[in-house]
């Protein structure tokens, strides 16, 4: 019997068989020719890593159990006890918690760099500074980083640039092509795209870094399961179709919301009045993604009413699925910042973040109109 599946089956196995000692030696002698143990490598997780690697233009990648694991792997690829990292102040809450609460225990220290000062890093650099961690588009205000300028700045100071490209996806921006050393994703978001997978991936521009990422993945046990990998690969196949759809819907919604008296501000890089609109246009090839934040009245009653009335934007504290949702930075992602930090980042009671899906846009507009009425 010849079985020729069109797509990669799920290799739901923790371990692989060997005929004899000769075959075992082939595993070590011809890397990539065989599999041994799924934590070290599995056809499904390799397929995901290789697919994202190709999209991002890297030389090697590791698929991880979450976006957090992807960030951890990237930091440990470059840092050890005694090292110091720079981190953009506008960063995913989990990233800053990882740095503050966990990597600090391992002797890795951090300094946060305000958005306005990202292009003048010299005054933040110490002799032990290894890298800058930043996001292509930040959460929740969608500030856009000029990655080429950042890469030049970092390299001039001997630092690596690590970019969390979760919000943009490689369809909108490819950080390695702009000079970044490592790019990573919460695959949970756009890469898988259907709100049914928790996963991550970290991609390196350099072979030695890729090997280091692989080692960190295997030895810390960060690698991804076959089933999750398979689902993420399935999602990834439509990423290039989904991102334009998310972007077109989001632009129409941003323009609509800007006209609504109940909406005090709309933060979306596709709007001409966004502070980095021109950069976003250039760096994103005309697509601005599906994420935006809106400012309602700074009054929890108003926010609650909006959440309760909206049918197509359920309050679900994640993002980037084909189905729209909304989130609340003050109560979720940025909950554990100090009130001063929250205020500095513009995260107030009235700030609501929308993740615009790929539904028919008229339905989304009608829903928002009635929720705001
Ligand atoms: C969600 C998210 C993460 C963390 O990813 P998980 O898959 O939840 O571990 C990291 N960075 C950004 C920008 C995210 O949105």
TrEMBL record:
It holds the Pfam family Cys_Met_Meta_PP. The modification N6-(pyridoxal phosphate)lysine is found at residue 189. It comes from the Bacteria. One of its GO terms (cellular component) is cytoplasm. Keywords: Pyridoxal phosphate. Belongs to the trans-sulfuration enzymes family. This is Cys/Met metabolism pyridoxal-phosphate-dependent protein. It comes from Hymenobacter swuensis DY53.
């Amino acid at each position: 019997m010849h079985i020729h599946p069109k797509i990669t089956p799920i290799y739901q196995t923790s371990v692989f068989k060997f005929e004899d000692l000769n075959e075992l030696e082939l595993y070590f002698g011809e890397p990539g020719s065989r599999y041994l143990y799924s934590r070290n490598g599995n056809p499904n997780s390799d397929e995901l890593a290789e697919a994202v690697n190709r999209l991002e233009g890297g030389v090697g990648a590791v698929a991880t159990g979450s976006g957090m694991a992807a960030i951890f792997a990237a930091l440990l690829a470059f840092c050890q006890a005694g090292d110091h990292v720079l981190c953009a102040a506008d960063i995913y809450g989990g990233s800053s918690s990882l740095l503050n609460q966990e990597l600090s225990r391992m002797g890795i220290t951090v300094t946060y760099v305000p958005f306005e000062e990202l292009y003048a890093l010299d005054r933040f650099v110490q002799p032990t500074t290894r890298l800058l961690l930043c996001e292509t588009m930040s959460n929740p205000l969608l500030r856009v980083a000029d990655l080429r300028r950042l890469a030049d700045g970092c390299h001039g100071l001997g630092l690596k640039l690590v970019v969390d490209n979760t919000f943009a996806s490689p369809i909108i921006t490819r950080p390695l092509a702009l000079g970044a050393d490592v790019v990573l994703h919460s695959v949970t978001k756009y890469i898988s795209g259907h709100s049914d997978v928790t996963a991550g991936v970290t991609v390196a521009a350099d072979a030695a870094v890729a090997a280091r990422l692989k080692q960190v993945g295997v030895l810390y046990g960060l690698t991804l399961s076959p089933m999750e990998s398979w689902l993420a690969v399935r999602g990834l196949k439509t990423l290039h179709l989904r991102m334009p759809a998310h972007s077109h819907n989001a632009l129409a919604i941003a323009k609509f919301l800007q006209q609504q008296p109940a909406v005090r501000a709309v933060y979306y890089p596709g709007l001409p009045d966004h502070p980095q609109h021109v950069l976003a246009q250039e760096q994103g090839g005309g697509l601005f993604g599906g994420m935006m934040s809106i400012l309602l009245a700074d009054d929890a009653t108003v926010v609650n009413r909006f959440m309760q009335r909206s049918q197509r934007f359920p309050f679900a504290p994640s993002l980037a699925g084909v189905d729209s949702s909304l989130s609340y930075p003050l109560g979720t992602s940025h909950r554990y910042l100090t009130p001063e930090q929250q205020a500095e980042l513009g995260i107030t009671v009235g700030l609501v973040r929308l993740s615009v899906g790929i539904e028919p846009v008229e339905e989304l507009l009608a829903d928002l109109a009635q929720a705001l009425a």
